[in-house]
Amino acid sequence: MGKITGMERKEELPPKVLQMYRAVMELIAEGEDLSAISVSTITGRAGIGKGTAYDYFDTKEEIMACALIFYMTEFSQSIRTKLFACEGFEEQINLLLDKLEEKSGKQHCFLRFVHVLTGNSEFSDLVRQKMVCPAFEQNLPLSVFGEVIEQGQRNGEIRRDLPTEYLVYAVVTRLSTYLASIVTEECFHVDSKGLRPYIFRGILEELTVQKKL
Amino acid sequence: MGKITGMERKEELPPKVLQMYRAVMELIAEGEDLSAISVSTITGRAGIGKGTAYDYFDTKEEIMACALIFYMTEFSQSIRTKLFACEGFEEQINLLLDKLEEKSGKQHCFLRFVHVLTGNSEFSDLVRQKMVCPAFEQNLPLSVFGEVIEQGQRNGEIRRDLPTEYLVYAVVTRLSTYLASIVTEECFHVDSKGLRPYIFRGILEELTVQKKL
Amino acid sequence: MGKITGMERKEELPPKVLQMYRAVMELIAEGEDLSAISVSTITGRAGIGKGTAYDYFDTKEEIMACALIFYMTEFSQSIRTKLFACEGFEEQINLLLDKLEEKSGKQHCFLRFVHVLTGNSEFSDLVRQKMVCPAFEQNLPLSVFGEVIEQGQRNGEIRRDLPTEYLVYAVVTRLSTYLASIVTEECFHVDSKGLRPYIFRGILEELTVQKKL
Amino acid sequence: MGKITGMERKEELPPKVLQMYRAVMELIAEGEDLSAISVSTITGRAGIGKGTAYDYFDTKEEIMACALIFYMTEFSQSIRTKLFACEGFEEQINLLLDKLEEKSGKQHCFLRFVHVLTGNSEFSDLVRQKMVCPAFEQNLPLSVFGEVIEQGQRNGEIRRDLPTEYLVYAVVTRLSTYLASIVTEECFHVDSKGLRPYIFRGILEELTVQKKL
DNA sequence: GATGAATGAGGGTTCATTCAT
DNA sequence: AATGAATGAACCCTCATTCAT
Description:
about 0% strand, homotetramer, 11 helices, DNA-binding
């Protein structure tokens, strides 16, 4: 009766739903286009019946949106932990750049997230609508990176004369663009490896108090 | 007989092809997912028969890719002209920021372009493949912004100690930041207007010779 | 999941598949050109949804090929049983000639089978490929008629100085003659009825030991 | 205005019509399925505009039927000449068997003719309807082979106790079956070369007065 | 609760035919 | 007379969704 909304805690989720989420994420990680993922593929890979999907969700879009929300949460919590285990802002930025370079399917997942979040399709709307709820707020990039920045400001590492909101966007967009340069370097002959030190320095220059340059 | 390749000049294009291109772009501007745009929709909106599409193109993907290429070219040439009519780098940046604020469907189109170019579907490959040809090279962001930057360097406005590639990256990244803040502001309650001066100043600080503005 | 291959026994076939087979055969019997038979027509006549066809088969060609194989098997088994219930070679030939005269759509179906088997389209290849498997071998004309001939040779009815392959050929050719005369008689004003005794005597003269009938 | 009917003499036919006929026959000779031949393909190969086809014919079926009729006439006249240049019935049969073995596209053409003439589709009806007119009568197999047989009978080579009609069918069907054995030998492992002498002898035995065996 | 057989709307594509030039 | 751009019906096939079991 009551359908999954995407706001459940991991422990509350029926195992079959988790299997579906995993299936969606695997497919994305393998490079499948969101629109190319079918319900049969999801349930087939999840090892459940096709009808079962509709016991838990109303539409395919709901399935995908909830899977995205779920993995954004997972990813957010994981990165948050790792970021707060770092010593200082520089190490944090390096960690993030390293993450982006990992040749796992994560690159695809991350790019898809960005595309969905900045898209204007109905599906994008659905996902964003699920994101703007108190339960999810702490997983928004603005929250995660916001805390990192505020921690840095408390340490005296990061400048205080710019709004946190701006600083977060400054970091997130540079990371996104770095990722974009990585995935398009083959085609557009971009030297992403050569770009990295400039990006790294660029972020530090803009955000930190002591310009090292 | 000979099919459209996407490399034609505007004047060479049959009117029905232009109508199709316009239809594609309108649909994208209205928020339709690329994969949700059907040939029937395109031809219906273009006011032509469905079969006609296949007189000019081999596949739906070709239609869409050529439409994208066409509008990227249009946009690139338009912005190039406007940029070179500006007096100085500051005015150029302001022009670009103004452009991004225009509440036309252009914002979403531009974002879709970015999504396609950073995607890894076969369609993305097709579009990128069309972009890496001598005829299109001058329309690549790297070319357009590269020339702006080199002009600025010749004027003595812009620093010469960083590779052009990176300086382009720095500009594009921040423009993306602004665009992302605009399209997500409704949902994530971001104050994009308030962000603009910071972005403006950030670009100038990083690129121009006189850092302390 | 597992698609129909055409090698199933009749009892194993889902009812909807049998309905499809029947629909195909009816359409052929009605004179429809094989290439003019559409999936919609088949499923429409079978009284099932169009999509259902693709639950059981991968392509339209598979549907048609399996239907053909199915009815060839049916026909072969039926004729084999009837042939071995006959007393002597003469009765067998008369049975076959009677069969050919039956004014059911079977005549046309049989001719279509021959056309397909001697065609050189991809569809012909597909059907032939399905026929050259151990499971189907016993249904090949060479098998059915070969056994009849060998039985006749054991009885001392049929000559032993010519290769079985040729004797089969001799019978099949004359049966074809009769069939061809029947189906073209209306148009070319052939008197097929009048031809029959000559064909009958021709077969016996060439194959049986006592030539001078 | 007045469309082509298929009953024109070669000299009366506009060159573009001849080009279309040639195109059709080439395509068949290349193994193309009749139903796979499109009007564009025909006109393209004929080097004429697509609309032109409809100046001369009402439908695609008319084009194909007339082309078939035309080449059957050509073929019939050519074979008639060659047959009457032979010395005796044996040489005539050998000529025909040689023809069938020629690895030219003729095999395909001949098989298609047989399929069309023995089919029961609307297209078959159309072709047959064109064949039963006084102008074409002399080109019917029954005429050509009938004359050969009657010549043989006058020579005293061929028996006179069977109706000519039967003898013609007996020859034609054996030839058709020989052709069928040739085209299917690869798939069904028939030894057509080995069969030939038996077929040759079989025809002579059945038709000629002096059984040589 | 779970299934998967069944559906049919809608997708991309082809092609016989028309008609303005 | 000749053309080929344009059409739209009809093709094969997919897939989100339902429902009897």
